[in-house]
């Protein structure tokens, strides 16, 4: 039986009405693009929060560095960089860049933005545990970034939308206002809280001017309403269409993008039945992830071969896995299997896994809550097994931080309560390795060590389903969800 949470008809209608009435949506305003987004801002569009990804998806705020397809650093507002010693990096800024408030991008302005992020409370997630300071040299056009400890990922960190470079006028006390203060091809001109946002083409953009005249954003949390907005022509681009709605749309209107996000079964290695490696192996053998892909996700997901999936093409080069631990006999072992409701498919995943584990000889009790009400217990090891949809590259585009967070002895998100000396050594080696092929190989070695513990059973890799009206050209299909409407996006 499928578990779906539907928005009441009146609420869905209200959402669609809001989308229809938003200024400039649909065909009313020639050359403008209407976008229906999943979540409203949670922190007033502060770049120091996850709202930063909205600013980057609208191409209004930019960073010193961008990333290529494999996660290596590329020029953004900085055109070149070098490490002058293990804790110091120097970035040379691009010439001729203006902020939307018509002030010039200077080294001191860029350093100010980075230092404001470093001093924010709480700090941006990308700077969690990182002590970073920036200093600008306006004469040389360079920004020097210093870290307290050696950090080979500084360029990748500076690609995070949470370290976007805004004009000095954006900052007042502890608040940050991105309206009219970015550098991208679109200027944010109006932000109406949790309702909508409006952006206009910025004619002073340093690169190729935007093809569209502007963007009109409406926040539509309900997936059924978002899909309906695309179907009825109220929205040109719709993000995160639920699997349940994808089949109701024309195939030429949707694109499935492999995500660096893995649905994973975490097993508690410290307490309870899964402290026994043999029972962890029994759980691994009991799981049929193909049934989840074909049933719950209706074929719109990728079967997991490891923690990392097709959104990171280099992960296919992983070494062979060591001989797995032999499975023990569950013999009616009682386990608590938990997950959360915020992602509509996960309760159904839990139901399928409960049956599979029961068939293998476990006695299973489910616990399902909203994520905000279950995270603390999951991190405290209150459950024997926990199903999580987990981003695997976080903000730097590099999976080493995720693996350290989830699987090291001191990891801050270690739901499996795993503490393995060999795993820690490989994770530390990967963290120290400079970016590039050598680092990627080290990450895959660490992944193999984690999988060998059976502390985690990767299930599947999600795909995000993006909807585009037939008239839309050039929208970004970005696995990292940093880009959506770019300077090239247009309405035919």
UniProtKB/TrEMBL annotation:
It is found in: Cell membrane. Residues 1-22 form the signal peptide. InterPro entries: Peptide/Ni-bd, SBP_5, SBP_5_CS, SBP_5_dom. PROSITE patterns: PROKAR_LIPOPROTEIN, SBP_BACTERIAL_5. It is a lipid-anchor. It comes from the Bacteria. SUPFAM superfamilies: Periplasmic binding protein-like II. Keywords: Signal. Coiled coil: none annotated. Residues 73-412 form the Solute-binding protein family domain. Belongs to the bacterial solute-binding protein 5 family. PANTHER family: MONOACYL PHOSPHATIDYLINOSITOL TETRAMANNOSIDE-BINDING PROTEIN LPQW-RELATED, PERIPLASMIC BINDING COMPONENT OF ABC TRANSPORTER. This is ABC transporter substrate-binding protein.
């Amino acid at each position: 039986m499928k578990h779906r949470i539907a928005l009441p008809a009146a609420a869905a209608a209200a959402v669609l009405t809001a989308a229809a009435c938003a200024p400039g949506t649909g065909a009313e305003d020639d050359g403008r693009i209407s976008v229906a987004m999943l979540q409203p801002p949670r922190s007033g569009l502060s770049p120091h929060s996850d709202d930063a990804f909205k600013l980057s998806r609208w191409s209004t705020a930019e960073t010193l560095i961008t990333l290529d397809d494999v996660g290596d650093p590329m020029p953004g507002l900085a055109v070149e960089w070098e490490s002058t010693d293990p804790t110091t990096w120097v970035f040379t800024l691009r010439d001729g860049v203006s902020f939307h408030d018509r002030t010039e991008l200077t080294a001191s302005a860029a350093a100010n933005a980075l230092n404001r992020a470093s001093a924010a409370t709480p700090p941006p997630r990308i700077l969690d545990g990182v002590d970073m300071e920036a200093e600008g040299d306006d004469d040389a056009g360079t920004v020097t970034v210093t870290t307290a400890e050696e950090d080979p990922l500084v360029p990748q960190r500076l690609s995070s939308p949470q370290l976007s470079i805004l004009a000095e006028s954006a900052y007042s006390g502890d608040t940050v206002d991105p309206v009219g203060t970015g550098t991208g091809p679109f200027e944010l001109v109006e932000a109406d809280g949790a309702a909508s946002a409006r952006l206009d083409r910025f004619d002073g953009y340093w690169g190729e001017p935007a093809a569209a005249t502007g963007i009109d954003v409406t926040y539509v949390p309900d997936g059924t309403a978002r899909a309906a907005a695309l179907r009825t022509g109220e929205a040109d681009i719709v993000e995160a269409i639920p699997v349940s709605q994808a089949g109701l749309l024309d195939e030429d209107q949707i694109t499935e993008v492999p995500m660096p996000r893995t649905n994973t079964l975490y097993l508690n290695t410290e307490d309870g039945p899964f402290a026994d490696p043999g029972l962890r192996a029994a759980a691994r053998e009991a799981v049929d992830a193909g049934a989840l892909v074909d049933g719950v996700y209706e074929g719109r997901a990728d079967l997991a071969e490891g923690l990392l999936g097709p959104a990171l093409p280099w992960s296919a080069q992983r070494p062979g896995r060591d001989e797995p631990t032999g499975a023990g006999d569950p013999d009616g072992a009682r386990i608590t299997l938990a997950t959360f409701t915020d992602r509509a498919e996960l309760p159904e995943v839990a139901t399928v896994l409960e049956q599979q584990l029961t068939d293998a000889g476990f006695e299973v009790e489910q616990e399902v809550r909203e994520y905000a009400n279950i995270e603390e217990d999951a991190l405290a090891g209150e459950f024997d097994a926990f199903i999580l949809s987990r981003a695997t590259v976080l903000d730097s585009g590099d999976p080493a931080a995720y693996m350290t967070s989830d699987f090291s002895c001191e990891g801050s998100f270690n739901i499996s309560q795993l503490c393995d000396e060999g795993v820690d050594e490989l994770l530390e080696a990967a963290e120290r390795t400079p970016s590039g092929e050598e680092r990627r190989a080290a990450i895959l070695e660490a992944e193999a060590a984690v999988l060998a513990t059976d502390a985690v059973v990767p299930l599947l890799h999600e795909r995000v389903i993006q909807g585009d009206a037939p008239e839309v050209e050039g929208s970004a299909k970005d696995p990292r969800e940093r880009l959506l409407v770019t300077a090239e996006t247009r309405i035919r």
